[in-house]
Amino acid sequence: MAPAAPPSPTPETTPSGHQLFTRIRLATPSDIPHIHKLIHQMAVFERLTHLFSATESSLSATLFSPTVQPFHSFTILLLEASTTLFPVSTFDSNPLFKPLTEVVNLRLPFEDPERDTFKSTDDVTVVGFVMFFPNYSTFLGKPGFYVENLYVRECYRRMGFGKMLFCAVTKEAVKMKYGRVDWVVLDWNVNALRFYQEMGAEIVEEYKFFRLTGKPLQASGHTH
Amino acid sequence: MAPAAPPSPTPETTPSGHQLFTRIRLATPSDIPHIHKLIHQMAVFERLTHLFSATESSLSATLFSPTVQPFHSFTILLLEASTTLFPVSTFDSNPLFKPLTEVVNLRLPFEDPERDTFKSTDDVTVVGFVMFFPNYSTFLGKPGFYVENLYVRECYRRMGFGKMLFCAVTKEAVKMKYGRVDWVVLDWNVNALRFYQEMGAEIVEEYKFFRLTGKPLQASGHTH
């Protein structure tokens, strides 16, 4: 049944309306400059720039292994947006991951103050990313995924993009018959805590997260 | 300078004394029955048998990938003990990991009530294991290791074996120029908390550990 008046403020049938076309695809080595900027922006948001030392070349040297396929090692899915339809591309025929697309209808024209910094191709802008890799549960006797980062640029928040990225990972986990998806959230990030709890995820309260890094790691690795 | 009297209660020079020879080596598919028993024992110790569903065949189907080398994917190092010297074996010439050995001098002859269950070869008994795999820090722009489990059977505790296993991992992390080693500890396990803190590791107090598993994972992976 057709909806009654008032007419929709988001005219789905008008291609010239305020539509945002989005796409999640596997990142490639040529995305590293954008990925590096997104990671740095996330470090600023998390007030952890003192821990940030990644460079484009350190990322380049350690990501995108030529011998291990995505999902079986470190994997990055990128979220892009465009005000026009995405043209057909080689991503569409990638046998490892078929891009996920969605159209978002907006009430107002979209303004991205960082459009030039995150411009991918003519009409396409990089919006966010999710970085994850396999982990393993000996109790379940099978792998899972650990989500290292999920980040959406500020002007694109509260539009469902975080959930799109997260569900791209859980969808793959279910497809691969993996047992669980794990990640950590900073305790002051109440929006993130709420976001994940609303999706049915639970905090494992009895876990103390340990880390050995820097000099203590060097010392431990050289003794014994 | 030689130590003064009293004479050492652990006669290092007497091969017929109470010595325990130990070896850390890469696990192989034929170790799965022992690994499965160790994991179950750990689940009992952690009071988490309700989460234990691994079988020998689920472990067998998901560990020891033929295409990815140890340390680049899920990896298990086994600790074995023997009252006699380990004979020369193929493990000694494994280019991926040269076994780490140590001799422990004991005041009394060693009694292992589970010797038959964990017997490997004639004189060799499986004592414990560490299970770990690569993780990735986008802030550091490089990989690290995540330690999923470290377990030593009860009668072998308080003899330095946990540290031997842990340092085998940190040593490899340093060798591979990895940035950090992460793991979680159950908050009631005060011995484990103390053990790791004494090694210079720190608890990342602001991390809330999230997990999505079972039905909520299935639901999340099938929506969207």
UniProtKB/TrEMBL annotation, chains A, B:
Assigned keywords, A-Z: Acyltransferase, Transferase
Keyword Acyltransferase tagged: yes
Domain N-acetyltransferase: 76-218
Molecular function as annotated in GO: N-acetyltransferase activity
SUPFAM superfamilies: Acyl-CoA N-acyltransferases (Nat)
InterPro entries: Acyl_CoA_acyltransferase, Diverse_Substrate_AcTransf, GNAT_dom
Top-level taxon in the UniProt lineage: Eukaryota
Matches recorded under Gene3D superfamilies: 3.40.630.30
Name of the protein this chain belongs to: Probable acetyltransferase NATA1-like
Organism: Vigna radiata var. radiata (Mung bean)
Phylogenetic lineage: Eukaryota, Viridiplantae, Streptophyta, Embryophyta, Tracheophyta
Gene label: LOC106771655
